[in-house]
Amino acid sequence: MPLTKAVSYCLIEDSFEAGKLAMEEVKEKLHGEIPDFLFLFTTIGHDTKEVIKGIYSAGSSIPLCGCTGSGVITSSGCDEASRSVGLMGIKSKTVKFTPFIFTGLSKDVEKPGRQIGNKIKSLDLPKEDKKLLILLPDGLFLSSGPFLPAIKDELGYHIDCVGGTAGNDYHITSLTYQFCNNEVYHDSVAGVIVSGDFNYDIEVSHGSKPIGLPKTITKASENIVYEIDNEPVLEFLKKYWGERRFSNFGQNLNLFGFGQLFQGKGYSQDIIIRAILGFEENGIRLKTPLPVGTQIYMTRRDRDMVKEGTQYMTEKLLSSLKKPDECAYFYFNCSGRASHLYGETEPDVNNLLEILGDKDMIGFFTFGEYAPVGGENYFHNYTGVILGIE
Question: Residues 72, 43: contact at Cβ < 8 Å?
C-alpha cells in the first residue's frame, strides 16, 4: 500500500495558531484521517512548544519529530521568515516511523551516536525490513567526526543516514532546537528510524568547483587546520582569495571552502565540500576534522552549477523511484545555498520544484547535511540532499 501524505505550509505569526492551522490543513488533505506520524520544521522565531501544543489541539498525540531551520521548504514554496511552519503528515500500513531524541551532543558527540545505534537494536527489527535513518542534530556543535562511525560501530551494520543539522537565523545568541513528540531541546540530536516494506532513494549535489591543483594538509589538530603544503593556512587562503577578499574574511566564507579529495565514488567533481567556519589560533576552524595527509582543493561555489546540480539530482531521483507521484519527498538544503548565495531564498528550490512539480515535499535550510555516497555515510557542507520514500 502506498504512503498517504499531506503537507501544510504556514506563515501565521502566532505559534499556537500556526500549529493548529497546519494540523487542521493536514487532516483536511487526508480527508479527515489522523496521520500516523508528523514531520515538523519551523524557523527560530516561533515558540516551538506552542506550535506543538497547537498541533496536538487539532489532533491526538501523534508521534512527531523535527527541528528548527534557517528557513522552511515545502512543495508550496520556501522562505527564511522568522516565523514559518512546515508540517507533513504520513499514514502507512507497511512503514513504521520511530522518533528519538538524545541530548548532550556538544559534550560527547560519540555518545549520542552510540545511543542511536542502541535504539535501533532495541527495536529488534526483522532482517527483511528495509531501514533508513533520518538525522536532525543541533547544527552548532563543532566536530561531526566520531558521530556517524559511532552509530555504525554500535549497531554492527550499515544503515543509510540522511538529513540535516538544525539551523537558526544566524544571530550569535540564537540556539537551534530539536523536537521529538512534545519534547523540545537544544544541544541534542533528534531523528527518525524508518523501517518496514518501503523503497527510497537519496541524491546529493554541491555545485562547487575546484580551484588550482590539489594540496595536502600538513599540520592540523581535530577540526583546526594550521598548515597546507607546509605553508601557514592563512597565507594559503590569502593567496587564493586575494588581499581584498581576505580582508573581508567573514563575508567570503559563504563562497569559498575546501573540497576533500573524494575519488572513485562517482560523486560530483570528485570532492566533498568542507566549510570554513572562521579563524582559530593562527588556524582555521572547520565543521569536520581533516587529519594531516588529507588532500584538498580550494573550492568556490558557482550559482549556475548549484542550480544545474539540483536539477540533475532531482531528475535522477524521480527516474529511480517506481511510483514517483506517490512518494513523500524531503529536501535538506544548506542555508548557504539560499539568500546568502543568490540574494534571495528561492532560486535553488525553484529549480527543484520545476522538476518535482506539486508532489508532497518538506524540508528546511540546514547548517550541514547528511547523505550516503558510494555506500558510506558522510557529513556534507554547502550541499543539497533530496530523499524520496515510497
Answer: yes
